[in-house]
Amino acid sequence: MAQLHAILPSSAHLLFPSCRTALSSDHCHCPKTFGSLQELGLKASEFRGLPIVQRSANFSLSRRSHGIQAVLAGDKETMESYGVDGKPLRKKLNKVVLAYSGGLDTSVIVPWLRENYGCEVVCFTADVGQGALELEGLEKKAKASGACQLVVKDLKEEFVKDFIFPCLRAGAIYERKYLLGTSMARPVIAKAMVDAAKEVGADAVAHGCTGKGNDQVRFELTFFALNPELSVVAPWREWEIRGREDAIEYAKKHNVPVPVTKKSIYSRDRNLWHLSHEGDILEDPANEPNEDMYMMSVDPKDAPDEPEYVKIGIVAGIPVSVNGKELSPASLLAELNEIGGKHGIGRIDMVENRLVGMKSRGVYETPGGTILFSAVRELESLTLDRETIQTKDFLALKYAELVYAGRWFDPLRESMDAFMKEVTKSTSGTVRLKLYKGSVSVAGMESPNSLYRQDISSFESGDIYNQADAAGFIRLYGLPTRVRAMLD
Fold it and tell me: Does residue 218 carry a catalytic annotation?
C-alpha cells in the first residue's frame, strides 16, 4: 500500500485530498470503514501527501487501475499479520534460528518470537565444550517452549582448531590478561547459526544477548559478514521484560516450563577454553572472590605439594602433543585443562573495558590455555629474532582487540593472521613446563630452528664473535649520546 501512488495511473490523484474531481463513470466504490491507519497496514509517513484513510472513508477506484487489485491483495497479509495473542506483529518473519541454551531467557524468547514475529522458531545449540550437563534434555525443553525444531552442532574441534589456535599463535591477549575465551566462541557459534539458517530455510536469526554486553556485537557482526540478507532479532533490546521475575511471569503466562535448575548468583560462560564469572560480589572491585565460586581449578594453596612437569610439542606455532602423545586440538586442550586445573593454574581477576564503553569486572579460569600460551611464548624466544618478536607483540595487541570486538571475519584480522602464520613457520619444537601451586615456569626447551648458539653466547672465546669488535659498535651506537653531552 505504501507504493499505491506508483501503481495508479498518473491521472488518478486519490492519495491527495486536494484533488476532489470524481473519476470517470466506470468506477467502483470502497465503502469499508477503517478505525486506524494500522488496520489498513499504512503509515502516514509513507505517503507523499496526506493519507486518504479517515474514520469514515468512501473513496472511488477506477476499474481500469487493475494494478490496485494486486496491491490490496498483497496488503491482505499485512492487515491480517497478528501474533498468537492477537497483537499486531512487529514484522512478519517466516522462520528464525535462535541461539538457544535452554535457560530461562532463551526459553521465553521462543514464544516471544512467535508472538511478535509470527514465525516458526528453530532452536540452535552449539557444543563448544560447555559440558554434557548443559546439553541435557534440550530438545524436550525447546519443543515445550514452542520451537518446531532443535539443531545441535558439535563445534569443539572447529572451535579449537580454527579459532583458539590462531589466537594462540598470534599471542592475542586483551588488556594484558584476558585470553579471549568468550570472544573466540561467539563467532564460531554465529557462523554455525548462519549455516543452520541456510539448511532450514530461515530468513532470520536471533540471540539472547543483552544490550549492555559485548556478545551482541560479536554475534551480529558475524551475521552481517556471512549473510547480510538475514534479519537479526535481539529481544533484550525490544521487549518489556527487565529481569528474572518478569521472565518467569511471561513463561507462566505462555505455558513455558520454567527451568528448575538453581539460579547461580554469578553470570557464567563456559566453553572448552575457559570459564568466566561476573556479577554479585564481583561487581565491586574491592571484594575478593569467594573460593567456592571456582569450578575448573583448585585453590593454589590446596594444589599438590610436588610440582608436575608437562612437555608440549609445537609445530609452526600450533600445539600438537602433550608428553609425546599426539592429540586432536579439542582433546589436547581438554587434557591440559585437567592437568592445569589440578595445580590451580590460570586464574585471572581483572577489570576490563567493554566494547560498549563501560568497565566490567570478570574472573576467568583458563588452565589449559595458560599452559599453552606459556609454551608458545617460551619457544618463540628460541625461534624468532628481536625485530620479529617486537613486531609480532605489537600486532598481537590489535589482533586481540579485533577478536574482542567481534571482528573475527574482518579482512584486517584475516590479513594479520596471514602474517602470524608466516612468521611462526619456524616455531617448532618442544617446551617442558613446571606446574606448581598456580604457577607455570619453563624447565627446558629445544627446537631444530633455534637461533640460540651456545658457541656464540658462551663466555669462552669463539671464532664467530670477536669481543674486540664491540668497541667500535659501542662508539657508533653511543654517538647520539656523546653529541648531546658535548652540547651541554
Answer: no
Residue 321 is a catalytic residue: no
Q: Which of 105, 127, 269, 417 is catalytic?
A: 105
Using DSSP, state whether 237 is helix, strand or coil: helix
Model pLDDT for residues 196-206, shown as the tens digit of each residue: 999 999 999 99
Q: pTM for the whole thing?
A: 0.81
Return d(Cα 89, Cα 177) in angstroms, integer. 45
Q: How far is CA 2 from CA 8, 44, 89, 117, 180, in A?
A: 12, 9, 17, 20, 47
Confirm whether 105 is a catalytic residue.
yes
What residue spans of 124-180 are helical by DSSP H? 132-135, 138-145, 156-159, 165-170
Give the pLDDT score at 462: 66
* Ramachandran assignment for 237, one of left (phi > 0), alpha (psi -120 to 50 degrees), beta (any other): alpha
Choose, from 114, 169, 186, 361, the residue flagged as catalytic. Answer: 186
Say what the alpha-carbon torsion angle 200, 206, 207, 210 is, to the nearest 10 degrees.
180
Per the annotation, the verdict on 186 as an active-site residue is yes
Query: C-alpha grid cell for residue 219?
Result: 554475534
